[in-house]
């Protein structure tokens, strides 16, 4: 789950892990197991943002087996973005916010908070992993 989030931050938000002025510290995490996968399954991960605050982001990741109906697990975590030197919370960098807003699920009364791949606002980004 951490890898798909960090891959997205690097690819779509301009995060440079060793030189960025902010760092995302994981302050909570969870994972709910639904059903198992076995070698040599290929997994697909769907990423979305459930909450985007001033300095924090809550992600959700669905884990799917390629070609198999239904989710295998749902997990996620919350990052608090902090100054990389002093480790104090700081406002999300503009590039991060812009990239993460693409994945934000709307819960402001418009729609039901559910998204489909490719909708734009609330878009689910799929990441294909290597074989287990």
TrEMBL record:
Disordered: annotated span: 110-132
Record's compositionally biased regions (Acidic residues): 111-122
InterPro entries cross-referenced by the UniProt entry: HotDog_dom_sf, Thioestr_dom
Top-level division of the source organism's lineage: Eukaryota
A matching Pfam family: 4HBT
Stretches assigned to the Thioesterase domain: 2-67
Name under which the protein is recorded: Thioesterase domain-containing protein
Top-level taxonomy: Eukaryota, Fungi, Dikarya, Ascomycota, Pezizomycotina
